[in-house]
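Protocol step 4 of 6: structure prediction from sequence.
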Amino acid sequence: MRTDEDFVAYIADRLAALPGVAAVSLGGSRAQGTHGPDSDWDFALYYRDRFDPASLRAIGWDGEVSELGAWGGVFNGGAWLTVDGRAVDVHFRDLSVIEHELAEAEQGRFRWEPLAFHLAGIPSYLVVGELAVSRVLRGDLPRPGFPDAMREVAPPIWWRQADLTLRYARSAHAPRGRVTETAGALATAAMQTAHAILAGRGEWVTNEKRLLERAGLREIDSVITRLSPDSTQLAGQIDAARQLFESAADTDRRAR
């Protein structure tokens, strides 16, 4: 069995040798030192304009390799693999797209995109954040800081999304006793609020796994578990969630 460092080097060498690959990085909890024994391994391969996923399939690792663009938007595509008994994710990243999104982020411009497993979707600057928190293994990649312009622009946009989500839940779902829809709305609004708080701090977000903890919003769990089909109770819990979000944001602003 390879040691962790030998395993990283092995994967990096195989990915870097694929045609068109310009750089390879290790991301996620493994790069940031927050991983547990069962955490997967997140690698990204960077190419410019053209890469053939068939070359990754040809290595013969067990798992699924997508086509380019199969995961939608800036997240592009990738693979879920098992290598030496370890769970490995490989993300496809087009350097031309990354450079564009970096330039946009520096001007405070971004867009929201839906993405599987992400309740609030993702901001297009997520792929820039990956560069900032990842460990470059092969090749050269920029390591951008969080742009000042984005700290100004992103929080109000995310706050607006959260506000609209809560308003709709209160007007459309609560009066009809829709517990499931209300729970989904509260979870989504919590993630949107967390994005607002983290952007205000100038902290990159690359997924939602620890987003609520980082933003100080884990208490939303207790709000959601109190939901019942009573319309008045549902409305009250939506209001409680709004109060929680506003309180967390105020506490965060005072701490900065």
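Step 5 (inspection) to follow. The chain has a mean pLDDT of 95.
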